[in-house]
UniProtKB/TrEMBL annotation:
Highest taxon, organism lineage: Eukaryota
Protein's name in the database: Putative glycosyltransferase
Any Pfam family matching the protein: Exostosin_GT47
Membrane topology: Single-pass type II membrane protein
Principal cellular location given in the protein's record: Golgi
Keyword Transferase attributed: yes
GO molecular function terms attached to this record: glycosyltransferase activity
Location(s), subcellular: Golgi apparatus membrane
Keyword annotations of the record: Glycosyltransferase, Golgi apparatus, Signal-anchor, Transferase, Transmembrane
Family stated for the protein in its record: Belongs to the glycosyltransferase 47 family.
GO CC terms: Golgi membrane
Exostosin GT47 domain segment(s): 92-151
Length: 159
């Protein structure tokens, strides 16, 4: 009996073909998902989007609710529902709180300099604005966001 000889295909050819087939399948899958998303989003858009009911006392608040004299379409190109955005933003301004952890190690934590200049001035202005913000709270139980004032400049070479 003679041994059976298999045709020997070089390994890189089968690997190349497999990768090419995988890339082609991925491209087809992304194309299909993109077209279905575009088709569904174009049918969902209507000239008059439905109004969303807002629960709570925000609707009754006269300082938040937009008066009829103002331009309603002012932000219509940016926000899908500008009125709802205004209500949510006003609620965020009332309730949003940030807890800033107290300063720790001076070699790691940001220490506010007397003068904010140089390439790390934006970091200093950000930290200063957070510390002086109306959103800051000293009670971590009230906070929605927690901020650790670590300086990226002082962290260089520590990791």
């Amino acid at each position: 009996m003679a041994p059976i000889k298999f045709s020997h295909v070089p390994h890189f050819c089968s690997l190349q073909r497999s990768l090419l087939a995988l890339a082609l399948l991925t491209l087809l899958a992304f194309t299909y998902v993109s077209f279905t998303f575009l088709r569904s989003s174009s049918t969902d858009l209507s000239p008059n989007p439905p109004k969303v009911a807002v629960i709570g006392d925000l609707v009754e608040s006269s300082e938040i609710y937009q008066s009829p004299g103002k331009n309603v379409d002012e932000f219509s190109e940016i926000y899908h529902l500008p009125d709802l955005f205004r209500l949510n933003y006003a609620e965020m301004e009332k309730k949003f709180k940030v807890f800033v952890y107290p300063d720790g190690d001076p070699n790691t934590y940001y220490q506010t300099p007397r003068k904010l200049t140089g390439k790390y001035a934006s970091e200093g202005y950000f930290f200063q604005n957070i510390r002086e913000s109306q959103f800051r709270t000293d009670d971590p139980d009230q906070a929605h966001l927690f901020f650790i004032p670590i300086s990226c400049h002082k962290m260089r070479g520590k990791v």
